């Protein structure tokens, strides 16, 4: 008998584990050295989860057979995803051994229907049930069937394999192969983002990034409980915020407008002893490094930097959405260029080997929130042969982080609405939910 949604309790019975290898493995193993930007991103697990209605006239065993066979073919193109990530004894840095060790696929059956899931509370919803973690496999997939016949698929990648752009291309290729279509991306695995000789960088990077130890990461200053939440943001709200951000006559993007709104709300949920707070944005360097975007459009790996802005509490309280959006725009513009990314690659070169992170992620410098935009990430189009999803988004299994975090994705409705996955301290969650823009995700919002 199913548990009521008010308790959020359900079990997943795991029925099978299998290792899927590439359909056309490499003739011999090869080692793939990580780029400097790969080293900066670290080894954190990144998980995407998708939910699908009850596939009509398709049994679960047929779905599993199709997913595994199409995955095997996909791994022939994305062969590092079927490898192993090991520590090189000479450099003391991780590298990928492309040996076709395989991807781990886990099958499970949940004792609940999709309609009764608590989609809002990701703490109760995912950990230990819908996300399987095995450090021996840089790619892990869990396919879970529900009592209503619906299905969820969670994909967990080691961040050393790539960033959101890389993972999005992998998932699209897999879905195209599953539908017997030609793949639209021929992946580039060269990892050719090399430092200049001699390396040189702007001194400001010493304030934005730090070399750190695993102990500093483990003991990062998180004094408050961080909640994992999932929200729906309607297209009408997004458009309204963009109109407010453009009031001064400047053209502002939807993400810049949304960021300004979140930042203004955030200051109402900060301890009064703080006079300033920060906001950060993950920025993709494709199209900024090596000139034209098409030269790196199929690059698989990490090409990420972080833009950081700081403002006083008074400025954020008194400023309009338009004023704050201008600060956001100016801060992001400082890193959306080739010079910044070349400097960052060189900064990392000067601090190798060892762990490196952005200061804001380590929780240094007061309260902050980082926003990642996935406006191009595949959601509605991720059809593996049994229909499109009702939900597709990202989450993290990381239990400790020194900063608030938001990840924006297009809604599976494909109508301009967004799904926002967030890690928030309780006061900020309450402040955001006090307005109508952040709607706690629910089965009714997903039209289940």
Distance between the termini: 20 Å
> How many structural domains are formed by the residues?
2
**What name is given to the CATH topology of the largest domain?**
Chloramphenicol Acetyltransferase
Shape label = globular
Oligomer: single chain
Computed over alpha carbons, the radius of gyration is 22 Å
User: How helical, in percent, are the residues?
Assistant: 25-40%
Q: Structural class of the secondary elements?
A: alpha+beta
Helix count equals 12
Along the chain, the helix and strand elements come as EEHEHEEEHEEHHEHEHHEEHHHEEEEEHE
- Read across the widest sheet, the strand sequence of neighbours is 12-11-14-16-17-10-18
The largest β sheet comes out as: 7 strands, mixed
Strand content: 25-35%
Mean pLDDT: 90
CATH H level of the largest domain: which superfamily? Chloramphenicol acetyltransferase-like domain
Give me the CATH architecture of the largest domain, please. 2-Layer Sandwich
CATH class call of the largest domain = Alpha Beta
Q: What's the helix and strand layout?
A:
Blueprint: E1 12-20, E2 30-33, H1 36-41, E3 45-52, H2 60-77, E4 84-87, E5 94-98, E6 103-110, H3 122-125, E7 139-145, E8 151-158, H4 164-178, H5 205-208, E9 209-212, H6 214-218, E10 227-233, H7 235-245, H8 254-266, E11 276-284, E12 304-312, H9 313-318, H10 321-333, H11 338-351, E13 355-358, E14 368-373, E15 391-395, E16 404-410, E17 418-424, H12 426-433, E18 439-440
Parallel strand pairs: 6-7, 11-14, 14-16
Antiparallel strand pairs: 1-6, 2-5, 3-8, 3-15, 4-5, 7-8, 9-13, 10-17, 10-18, 11-12, 16-17
Helix pairs in contact: 2-4, 7-8, 8-10
């Amino acid at each position: 008998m199913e548990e009521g949604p008010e308790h959020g309790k359900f079990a997943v019975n795991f029925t099978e584990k299998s290792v899927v290898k590439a359909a056309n493995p490499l003739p011999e193993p090869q080692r793939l050295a990580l780029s400097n930007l790969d080293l900066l991103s670290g080894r954190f697990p990144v998980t995407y989860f998708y939910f699908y209605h009850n596939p009509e006239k398709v049994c679960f065993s047929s779905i599993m057979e199709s997913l595994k066979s199409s995955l095997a073919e996909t791994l022939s193109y994305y062969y590092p995803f079927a490898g192993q990530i090991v520590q090189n004894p000479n450099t003391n840095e991780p590298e990928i051994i492309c040996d076709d060790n395989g991807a781990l696929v886990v099958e499970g059956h949940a004792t609940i229907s999709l309609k009764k899931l608590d989609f809002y509370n990701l703490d109760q919803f995912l950990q230990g049930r819908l996300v399987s973690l095995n450090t021996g496999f840089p790619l892990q997939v869990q396919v879970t069937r529900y009592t209503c016949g619906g299905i969820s698929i969670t994909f967990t990648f080691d961040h050393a394999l790539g960033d959101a752009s890389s993972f999005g291309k992998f998932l699209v290729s897999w879905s195209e192969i599953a539908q017997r279509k030609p793949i639209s991306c021929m992946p580039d695995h060269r990892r050719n983002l090399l430092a200049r000789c001699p390396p040189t960088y702007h001194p400001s990077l010493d304030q934005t990034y730090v070399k750190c130890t695993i102990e500093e990461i483990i003991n990062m200053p998180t004094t408050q409980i961080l909640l994992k939440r999932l929200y729906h943001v309607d297209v009408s709200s997004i458009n309204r915020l963009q109109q407010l951000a453009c009031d001064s006559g400047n053209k502002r993007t939807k993400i810049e407008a949304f960021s300004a709104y979140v930042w203004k709300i955030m200051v109402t949920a900060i301890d009064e002893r703080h006079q300033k707070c920060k906001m950060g944005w993950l920025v993709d360097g494709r199209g900024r490094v090596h000139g034209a975007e098409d030269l790196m459009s199929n690059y698989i790996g990490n090409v990420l930097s972080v833009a950081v802005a700081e403002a006083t509490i008074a400025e954020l309280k008194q400023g309009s959405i338009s004023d704050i959006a201008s600060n956001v725009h100016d801060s992001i513009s400082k890193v959306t260029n080739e010079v910044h990314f070349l400097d960052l690659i060189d900064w990392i070169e000067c601090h190798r080997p060892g762990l490196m992170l952005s200061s804001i992620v380590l929780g240094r410098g007061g309260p902050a929130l980082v926003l990642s935009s996935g406006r191009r990430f595949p959601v509605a189009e991720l059809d593996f042969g049994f229909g499109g999803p009702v939900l597709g988004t990202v989450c993290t299994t990381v239990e400790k982080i020194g900063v608030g975090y938001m990840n924006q994705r297009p809604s599976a409705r494909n109508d301009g609405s967004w799904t926002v996955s967030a890690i928030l301290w309780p006061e900020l969650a309450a402040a955001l939910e006090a307005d109508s823009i952040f709607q706690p995700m629910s089965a009714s919002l997903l039209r289940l």
